[in-house]
Amino acid sequence: MNQVLLYCRAGFEKDCAAEIQQKTTDMGVYGFPRVVNHSAYVLFECYQEGDAERVVRDLPLDSLIFARQMIAITASLSELDPDDRISPILAVGEHLPKGGDLRVETPDNDEAKALLKFCRKFTVPLRQALRKKGVLLAKDNPKKPVIHVCFTAPGTCLIGYSLTTNNSPHYMGLPRMKFPADAPSRSTLKLEEAFHHFIPKQEWETRLAPGMWAVDLGASPGGWTYQLVKRSMFVHAVDNGAMDEQLMETGQVFHHAEDGFKFEPTRKNVTWLVCDMIEKPSRVAQLMGEWLIEGWAKEAIFNLKLPMSRRYEQVTENLDTLGAFLDDYNVAYEMRAKHLYHDREEITVHLRRVKRQR
Ligand SMILES: C[S@@+](CC[C@H](N)C(=O)[O-])C[C@H]1O[C@@H](n2cnc3c(N)ncnc32)[C@H](O)[C@@H]1O
Predict the structure, then answer these.
(1) Residue closest by Cα to atom 5 of ligand 1
(2) Residues 159 and 201 in one domain
(3) What's residue 358's pLDDT?
(4) Is residue 182 part of a domain?
(5) How far is the CA of 190 from the centre of ligand 1 (A)?
(6) How far is ligand 1, taken at its centre, from the CA of residue 279, in Å?
(7) Do residues 156 and 194 both lie within one domain?
(8) Which residue range or ranges hold the RlmM ferredoxin-like domain (predicted)?
(9) Ligand 1 atom nearest to 221, measured from its CA
(10) Contacts of 190 (CB under 8 A, 6+ apart)
(11) Per DSSP, which regions of 225-297 are E strands?
């Protein structure tokens, strides 16, 4: 087998496929993606032996917008006997690297609910059998590859592995987050997920520190502001819409009923700019660039609305234009974009001003 399995949001398979095709070509790996609409996964077939391994090792998952997980496939099984699904999986186990963990999964599509119950039940006996055979280490080891058995139908599965240095740590590539009962809107989870995704936990103390100032453009009713307030920051919330009263009562929020495209901070003390205005992506990207160029904020997290078609191509164009704009002004930056679990028709971008390397 010489395939790479990528999980994505159902309905975004073509975008995930366009992206993996482009990124593999860039690294000199040739192949083609197999796409089934609404399957929530893409299978990329590499032409050259060993290339699937290369992709999961050398292509950073972080550099992909639409893929939630990336797995090198070593075997594919179908028509498994319901009385003994384990033996055929063990029989192909020799093609796997020694694993430190096992995830029996299914892509996050319409059939997932029904299959998940089985996956969970099947995990325990399969783990025992794989350990006995030496395919899995006797104890979980977070440094060793993760073995994935992905059921795409009741008797059909793909078997492979991901590397912990280049995978999503989450089961099915999906972070689980609890909606905080006192948050004013569900979109609060989008910013929370973005913080988890883009900011390494060990840097939270310095980069998401209490007492920092933030600006939230398109803040009403306050789901994103809530995340900042929760971290003891002070927030300029910009929106003609009303802000949640409880948030206002904290004394940490300053509401500006203004146009987010015209708002300018009066002091240069802002660390974070966040923006959830539903607007033309090119306009939002340009605005974010202006803020960084002016030095009005150090880091930004913002949404870019996805177009109806050629989503990968167009979003890449927006990001490239933003990058070129920052280059023109000699601003060194880091930029990453992801179609997060809580994103639907938009992606989330993290942009950070950095010191230029000498
Ligand atoms: C998706 S909602 C934001 C939800 C918010 N992030 C939350 O978590 O509660 C988009 C908001 O952007 C605001 N908006 C759209 N265009 C704007 C503009 N030009 N200036 C300021 N706010 C704008 C809308 O009023 C709306 O409240």
Answers:
(1) 219
(2) no
(3) 65
(4) no
(5) 14
(6) 9
(7) no
(8) 1-71
(9) 9
(10) 223, 224, 276, 303, 340, 342, 343, 348
(11) 234-238, 253-256, 270-275
Total residue length of the chain: 358
358 within some domain:
no
Q: pLDDT digits over 101-140, tens only?
A: 999 999 999 999 999 999 999 999 999 999 999 999 999 9
CATH number of the domain that residue 197 is part of: 3.40.50.150
Tell me, yes or no, whether 164 and 195 share the same domain. no
Point out the domain boundary residue: 173, 203, 219. Answer: 173
CA distance 161 to 164: 10
Count other C-beta atoms under 10 Å from residue 343's C-beta.
19
Q: Which of 268, 305, 338, 355 is catalytic?
A: 305
Which tens digits make up the pLDDT trace of 189-208?
A: 999 999 999 999 999 999 99
In a domain, 105, yes or no: yes
Q: Are residues 168 and 193 in the same domain?
A: no
Ligand 1 pocket residues where CB is under 6 Å = 184-185, 187-188, 217-224, 238-241, 259-261, 276-279
Tokens of 92: 């192909």
Per the structure, the complete domain to which residue 144 belongs is given by 3-173
Residue 355 falls in the annotated catalytic set: no
The residue to mutate among 186, 264, 278, having the most atoms of ligand 1 within 8 angstroms of its beta carbon, is: 278
CA nearest to 342, candidates 174, 207, 217, 203: 174
**Residues sharing a CB contact under 8 Å with residue 42, sequence separation 6 or more, in sequence order:** 5, 6, 8, 13, 16, 17, 20, 33, 34, 35, 67
Annotated ligand binding at 276? The verdict is yes
Q: What tens digit of pLDDT does each residue of 17-39 get?
A: 999 999 999 999 999 999 999 99
Do 319 and 292 share a structural domain?
yes
Q: Last residue of a domain, which of 143, 173, 203?
A: 173
Which domain CATH number covers 17? 3.30.2300.20
Determine which residue's CA is closest to atom 13 belonging to ligand 1. Answer: 218
In a domain, 180, yes or no: no
Q: Which of 228, 274, 277 most suits a substitution to test ligand 1, by most atoms within 8 Å of the C-beta?
A: 277
How many separate domains does the chain show? 2
Domain match, 196 and 159 both: no
